[in-house]
């Protein structure tokens, strides 16, 4: 499970077109988890699909990432299937 978010600019929200990757902590379009959600953005968790993202209507930026609720959902799935475990990774150098 990633410890970072992927950013999308000039979008009207989830499932809509975007023009480019947004800014990032260390690379275009990639934000470290520790700075999410960004100031001014609203975090959204969708329990129907078990995923999270943040949305800032002023900057038209959407960032997809795992929050504690989505990680719990993924861990429950792993346990329910009797899988051997999971891992976290962070793409920072």
UniProtKB/TrEMBL annotation:
A single Gene Ontology CC term: extracellular region
Record domain GH18: where: 1-93
EC nos: 3.2.1.14
EC class (word): hydrolase
Reaction catalysed by this enzyme: Random endo-hydrolysis of N-acetyl-beta-D-glucosaminide (1->4)-beta-linkages in chitin and chitodextrins
Keywords: Carbohydrate metabolism, Chitin degradation, Glycosidase, Hydrolase, Polysaccharide degradation
Alphabetized Gene3D superfamilies for the sequence: 3.10.50.10, Glycosidases
Keyword field contains Nucleotide-binding: no
Any one Gene Ontology molecular-function term assigned to this protein's record: endochitinase activity
Biological process, per Gene Ontology: chitin catabolic process; polysaccharide catabolic process
Superkingdom field: Eukaryota
InterPro entries, per the entry: Chitinase_insertion_sf (IPR029070), GH (IPR017853), Glyco_hydro18_cat (IPR001223), Glycosyl_Hydrlase_18 (IPR050314)
Family assignment from sequence similarity: Belongs to the glycosyl hydrolase 18 family. Chitinase class V subfamily.
Protein name in UniProt: chitinase
Gene source species: Colletotrichum abscissum
Taxonomic classification: Eukaryota, Fungi, Dikarya, Ascomycota, Pezizomycotina
